[in-house]
Amino acid sequence: MELVIQPDAECAAWLVASLIAKALREKPHLVLGLATGRTMERVYGYLVQMHREEKLDFSLCRTFNLDEYIGLSPDHPGSYRYYMDHHLFNHINIDHRNTFLPDGTAPDLKAACRRYEETILEFGGIDLQLLGIGADGHIGFNEPLSALRSRTREKALTPSTIAVNSTLFRRPEEMPTRALTMGVGTILDASNIILLVTGSTKSDILAKAVEGPITAMVSASALQLHPHCQVVVDEHAAVKLQAQEYYRWVFDNEPDWAEFRAPCPSRKVLPHHRPK
Ligand code: F6R
């Protein structure tokens, strides 16, 4: 695991978008694992900008999202399909048939989960998985005590996740309390992982996830087992980290990071992608 501390959430998102863009340029058929949530809105804003201004090409890219609510139709504004179309897919040259999310409206949810895992394998596995973290340490919707080898399945959401995410619904009571999510094991199968964490409300859980013991109580702590996991955070999220000095030294000195060391350009994010 490598951890990079950026001055603010904007620069952290820009770095993550730049890492994704680099992977896509190196491998146009990239199989990209995607996340939703407030943290990712900036990343998708920058990817749209790179597509428009630098011709970043998504035409051959395939995407698999981590999760989807159970029972919401794709056109429901609270669904993750709607989120992805609105924040990314409708603004880039991706073939929509190559964008996959778990099917939370399937009559047989277990079969839909099995099929999702099979489809990922048919496409050769996920090359790069993007992750955010929940206040309870979840990645995807792997709430506390999710098995560290779990696969895509139904999951009941915790009261804290429901409280945080229901504010994104026009009527909070419309938010489903169950979701389909890739498992921790599914996520760990990705060849590369980028975890983006910003804001002071995430500082405690970030420290537990990356510097604490590996435990099913904090699903993100399983990322410590992954051989190619990059964690990108802002100064606010980093305040509780013990080894900050070392992380800064690695970013400032390791050759692999050289091309990303220039101060992040303060770029204009398109108005409809501006983080709220
Ligand atoms: C959503 C997902 C979640 C979010 C997490 C953080 O697809 O995978 O794990 O990444 O809940 O959400 P925000 O960014 O809204 O704090």
Notable features of this structure?
alpha/beta; Rossmann fold; seven-stranded parallel β-sheet; three-stranded antiparallel β-sheet; 9 helices; 15% strand; globular; binds fructose -6-phosphate
Detailed description of the structure:
This protein has a single domain, classed as Rossmann fold (3-Layer(aba) Sandwich), CATH 3.40.50.1360. The chain is built from nine helices and ten strands. It has helices spanning 9-26, 38-54, 80-87, 109-122, 159-165, 184-188, 203-211, 235-238, 244-253; strands spanning 2-6, 31-34, 62-65, 67-69, 99-100, 128-131, 153-156, 178-181, 192-197, 229-234. Strand 2 (31-34), helix 2 and strand 3 (62-65) form a beta-alpha-beta unit. The two termini are 30 Å apart. The model is unreliable at 270-276 (pLDDT under 50). The site of fructose -6-phosphate has 13 residues, from helix 2. Fructose -6-phosphate binds at residues 35-39, 66-67, 132-134, 138-140.
Please describe the topology of this protein:
Elements: E1 2-6, H1 9-26, E2 31-34, H2 38-54, E3 62-65, E4 67-69, H3 80-87, E5 99-100, H4 109-122, E6 128-131, E7 153-156, H5 159-165, E8 178-181, H6 184-188, E9 192-197, H7 203-211, E10 229-234, H8 235-238, H9 244-253
Parallel strand pairs: 1-10, 2-3, 2-6, 3-5, 6-9, 9-10
Antiparallel strand pairs: 4-8, 7-8
Helix pairs in contact: 1-2
The chain binds fructose -6-phosphate.
